[in-house]
Fold this sequence. Notes:
The structure is a homodimer of 193-residue chains. By secondary structure, the first copy, chain A, is mostly helical. Chain A has one domain (9-191): Tetracycline Repressor, domain 2 (Orthogonal Bundle). Helix content of chain A is 74%, strand content 0%. In chain A, helix 1 (9-23) packs across helix 4 (51-76) and helix 6 (105-113) crosses helix 7 (118-144). The first copy, chain A, is elongated. Chain A binds a DNA duplex (30 and 30 nucleotides) through residues 1-6, 29-31, 39-43, 45-47, 50-51.
Amino acid sequence: MARTKRFDEEEVLNNAMLFFWHKGYNGTSPQEILDELGLSRSSLYDTYGDKRSLFISTLKRYRDTVTGDVIRLLETADNIPEAIKSLFQQSRNSCFSGEEKNGCFMVNSKVELALHDEEVAAIVKENREALENAFTNAIKRGQEKGQLSKDNQPRALARFIMNNLWGLTVHSKSGADKKVFDDIIRMTLSVIK
Amino acid sequence: MARTKRFDEEEVLNNAMLFFWHKGYNGTSPQEILDELGLSRSSLYDTYGDKRSLFISTLKRYRDTVTGDVIRLLETADNIPEAIKSLFQQSRNSCFSGEEKNGCFMVNSKVELALHDEEVAAIVKENREALENAFTNAIKRGQEKGQLSKDNQPRALARFIMNNLWGLTVHSKSGADKKVFDDIIRMTLSVIK
DNA sequence: ATATTTGTGGAACAAAAGTTCCGTTATCAT
DNA sequence: ATGATAACGGAACTTTTGTTCCACAAATAT
């Protein structure tokens, strides 16, 4: 009965996510998003609520897409050590091919906001737990299949892996070169046997 | 010949650092600093320049104090494995005793700004390199003293250690509990032999 | 004591940020 | 076609941000 939206709701949300991902919450103004995406102010506020609501929606989108993909990879992988290795390679490559030095949106957001926004804190906490569980279960499967030694406790190893993946996202903003990444990845993977 | 400042220049700089550390660059307004520190607007601008200059000064102060202390510890430590272990314990404790969940000011700043401010990028890069060198030299000494095995290349081990320390600063914003920290630290230290 | 110099308090301001509101426009069910 | 509904464009507004400016105050060298 009413006019249809002139923009794609998911596409705008995705682009807004890229803004917040790249420049942070406090570093991004509604105006910038409007200028770039070309939709009208009223449409933005009508559809997504205020700036903070929009931000929360983009963070949830990240959880459902990027984090979701990692979890699904871990759930379906046949070769667990290879799957873990490929996550590290992916992290490394994203820092040196193209413009993808944005790091991880979850990491960026928790560093900027977790101390000051309870809802953000809850999302990143849940995100961490979901990832930890996915890694833990994958490691258990790997151990049962004989792909990984049973010397390490699955959950402890999962936490250790995540710590190094997050460390790499910090390294991506630190001006470190490829050799730094290679050293870290080699040392981390040496533990995963 | 002229009037003396009514405030302590170093003390105000230190307090401004705490603000930026806690709330980030874009999350902190000059007004907040003025309200809290009680000096006048003109004094602030006269002494430290604009907001960005003030921020850069606080970042350099952090480098000279906090990072400097770590480097000096590594340079003077007799027992290298113990020194490294104590850095991890320090990181762990600061997340659970008192209000120190601010993480590392360098890490926070590079995540927020390194992509958008060349001077910040240069400072955090230099900071990373100085720390890496300090760890590397300490590890070499530890190996020469027979405190550490020579299986690992000193620089690679240094990078790996830093990656895990930075990972912990991210974990401090992720709602992780003590057990998570303990697992990560135990696994990391198991590599340092 | 005075001149010189620098610090201080606070008014003032331009620009940006974040949001609301409303008249107009497009869509579609009837 | 028409009317109900929702989207759009953009004016407008309130705060906040970041900064400058200037009259006045205090310290000190002479």
